[in-house]
Amino acid sequence: MAAPIDLELKKAFSELQVKMIDTQQKVKLADLQIDQLTRVQKHAKLTHTEITTLPDNTRLYEGVGRMFILQSKEEINNQLMDKQKTADEKIKELEQKKVYLERSVKEAEDNIREMLLSRRAQ
Predict the structure, then answer these.
(1) For residue 59, is it left (φ>0), alpha (ψ between -120 and 50) or beta?
(2) Where are the transmembrane segments (predicted)?
(3) How would residue 1 be classed by pLDDT, with cut points 50, 70 and 90?
(4) Separation CA 108–CA 18 (nearest Å)
C-alpha cells in the first residue's frame, strides 16, 4: 500500500522541481527585463532634462538607423515622455508577473506539504 503513495509523492516532487526551475528562470528573465527597462527609462529622463535646458530655437536631430532627422523640440520631448510611460507600464506588468510566479510556486510547495502531512497521518 505504501508503494503507490511513494510513487505519487515522487511524481509530485518531480513536478514541483520542474515548476521551481521554470519559475526561477522566468523570474530571472523578468528581473533582467526590469533592469533594462529602468535603464531605458533613466536614459529618456536624463535626455529629457537636458533638452528642456536648451533654447527653443535649437535644432534637434533624432537618430534613425545611420541617419539623423530634424525634429522639433516638442516632438522629441513627446517621444521621450512616451518612452518613459511605456517603460513604466512594462515594469509594473513584469513585477505583477513575478508576484504571480512566486505565489504559484508557494502554492505548489504548500500542496506537497499537505500531501506529506496526510501521508504521515495514515
Answers:
(1) beta
(2) none
(3) very low
(4) 11
Complete DSSP assignment for 7-48: HHHHHHHHHHHHHHHHHHHHHHHHHHHHHHHHHHHHHHHHHH
Q: How many domains does the chain have?
A: 1
CA 13 to chain centre: 27
- pLDDT for 30-41, tens place per residue? 999 999 999 999
87-100 confidence digits (pLDDT tens): 999 999 999 999 99
For residue 62, what are the domain limits? 2-121
Residues 6+ apart with CB under 8 A from 29: none
What CATH number did the domain enclosing 104 receive? 1.10.287.370
